[in-house]
Amino acid sequence: MPSVEDVRPKIWNTIIDLYDDGEYSAIWGIRDDSPKRSLGVRWNGGGTYQGYPNQGRNPVWYSEPKFLEASILYSLFEKVKKSTFDRKDEFSKNILIAMEES
Q1: If we measure between CA atoms, which residue out of 64, 62, 74 comes closest to residue 98?
Q2: CA-to-CA distance for 59 and 14, rounded, in angstroms?
Q3: What is the C-alpha separation between 96 and 74, in angstroms, rounded?
Q4: pLDDT values of the chain reduced to their tens digit, one per residue, 102 residues
Q5: Could you tell me the residue range of the domain that residue 62 belongs to?
Q6: What total number of domains does the chain contain?
Q7: Within 10 Å of residue 73's Cβ, how many Cβ atoms?
């Protein structure tokens, strides 16, 4: 089960990690040659399964459509605020950056 920082396909760059609860992860980054960052998400799988989406054995990110970004970012922020994640402060700060850029 790959964690958020382990999934770095070449088509994404300028990535900041937004969320990772072991099952679901989210990033904010530039995909391909896009001029702006966008939301990437994935289910992390378990055992030998690389989660979804994947390309063969390689985990990748799914790009959420722009019209869903605000609601997902808000929901992630609320979930992180209530969490006990080790990276809670980092995730909160990064989600706020994503909200501002969105």
Answers
A1: 74
A2: 18
A3: 9
A4: 788 998 999 999 999 999 999 999 999 999 998 999 999 999 998 777 889 999 988 899 999 999 999 999 999 999 999 999 999 999 999 999 999 999
A5: 4-101
A6: 1
A7: 24
